[in-house]
Amino acid sequence: MEKSASQPTEDGQQSNSAPKDVAEVLTKHTKKPMFLKHVRVQHVHERSSHSDCEAEQEAQKRGTTELQARVETLTNQLKESEEARIRQEEARTKQEEENRKKQVHLEAKLDFLLNHISPG
């Protein structure tokens, strides 16, 4: 840090950017330079190693796989639910038809009885 601060700039003047020097050193030598974020000197990107990137990619793959499995499960549940609804609708329609036939049969019996009862 002292080396970079004491080196002259391109125009021959001494560098006055201590925060930049601190930021460079912290970025190079620490995994998470939170100090700069806390003092709001500079937005510093955390350095990421190859293993960090691989771990992140693996986590994304797992997340994608989990999401795909969840979507597949929900799709299957939706299909099953739709099939159950269709079966219920068919059963209801069948029951309504049976009730109509019973009603017609009972009305026919009632008409027969009413026609054969003598008034009085």
UniProtKB/TrEMBL annotation:
Residues 45-64, 79-102 have a biased composition (Basic and acidic residues). Residues 1-18 have a biased composition (Polar residues). This is Uncharacterized protein. Residues 1-25, 45-102 are annotated as: Disordered.
